[in-house]
Amino acid sequence: HAALRAVHAAYRAGDVDTLVKAAQRIDLPDQRDLAVADEIWHALWPLAGNGLTADQAMLLSKTVRPYSYAWDTIMAAGALKRTVGFEAATAFYEQSKAKAPRPDIQRELDAAASAVLR
To answer: Among 11, 38, 108, 114, which has the minimal tally of Cβ within 10 Å of its Cβ?
Structure first.
């Protein structure tokens, strides 16, 4: 639980590097505490345009939140494409689409695929 407390503390302090290191030591996503996923997304989202590292993009892909599943999947896939590569982004996107909680989310991901994975 020390790593979980470290994620919360790093988020409040605005320390992205510590947040990522601590988050990598806990099981993600933790459905009992979606606040952790929110903190990770809120801390890393400002870097999503061009400033994310591969580790940070991988962390986003592991913290897709159920209440913003399609948006998180699309954004994480784009981040993976920029930092890790097209193949990793495609694999993540297809896995996420297969696990989508509802058919309408699968359709939304299908519609966005050409823009995200080009």
So the answer is: 114
Token couple for 50: 């061009």
Nearby residues of 100 by Cβ (< 8 Å), 6 or more positions away: 69, 70, 73, 106, 109
The string of pLDDT tens digits covering residues 48-103 is 777 899 999 999 999 999 999 999 999 999 999 999 999 999 999 999 999 999 99
Which residue, among 28, 101, 42, 34, has the nearest Cα to 65 in the 3D structure?
34
| CA 92-97-100 angle, 5° bins | 125
18, 10 Cβ separation under 8 angstroms: yes
Q: Please write down the long-range contacts of 40-47, taking CB distance under 8 Å and 24 or more positions apart.
A: 40/7, 40/11, 41/65, 41/72, 42/11, 43/10, 43/11, 43/14, 43/16, 43/19, 44/16, 44/20, 45/75, 47/16
Phi, psi of 28 (to 5 degrees): -125, 150
